[in-house]
Write a structure and sequence with these properties.
This protein is mainly α. The chain has two domains: 149 residues, Four Helix Bundle (Hemerythrin (Met), subunit A), CATH 1.20.120; 36 residues, no CATH class. The chain has seven helices and two strands. Strand 1 and strand 2 form a beta hairpin. The longest helix has 23 residues. The radius of gyration is 16 Å and the shape is globular.
Length: 191
């Protein structure tokens, strides 16, 4: 049985925060593996997505911010921006009932279901930012198992492509690590 989504989410907050803290200041403007985005764009994107998720957990509506680039959402130092996002996210999942339901843009879902994709995103985007900053990021095996358990049942035409969360699966090298295989599965070139 996969690890619970709140555990993966908290672990993802930890990993992502550690990459943000380690990121060289000069690397925030570096290209990320996300087409057309810098590392700072990835941070802004993930910050707004996590803010949206926290609002749903808290039963509030979320007003999506307007911006030209996701990096426009990062006000001040990236580490401070992320700390201001992570603290309420951590508080929102503390002791949460995973079987409770919330109204989401995809209909009524359990908290466990609602946390799954943001939890996976934390690991994938930690890798994206790490790649831009020259920081090695390893995704734990239990998180990879969790991601497959959640995403594999979703039809490829929903998950992949222009409107999906992932691009087409990339080819992993023959000697790929588990993380590299996972990253290729998300549509990123792992090396």
């Amino acid at each position: 049985m996969p690890v619970p989504s709140d555990v993966v989410f908290r672990s993802g907050l930890d990993l992502f925060g550690s990459v943000v803290d380690e990121m060289p200041v000069s690397a925030w403007s570096a290209a990320s593996p996300c087409d057309g985005w810098t590392a700072l764009d990835v941070l802004g994107h993930l910050g707004s997505a996590i803010g949206f998720g926290v609002a749903i957990l808290d039963g509030r509506t979320y007003d999506w911010p307007t911006f030209d680039r996701p990096s426009d959402l990062v006000d001040g130092a990236p580490t401070a921006y992320w700390a201001d996002i992570a603290a309420p996210a951590r508080a929102a999942v503390e002791g949460v009932d995973l079987d409770a339901t919330r109204v989401t843009p995809m209909g009524v879902r359990t908290v466990a279901e609602g946390l799954a994709f943001p939890a996976i995103d934390l690991f994938v985007h930690a890798w994206d930012i790490g790649r831009a900053g020259g920081i090695a990021v390893e995704v734990p095996d239990d998180v990879i198992e969790f991601a497959h358990a959640y995403i594999d049942p979703i039809p490829a035409d929903v998950m992949r492509g222009a409107k999906g969360a992932f691009g087409p699966q990339a080819v992993a090298p023959d000697d790929a690590t588990a993380t590299e295989g996972f990253i290729a599965w998300t549509g990123r070139v792992p090396r």
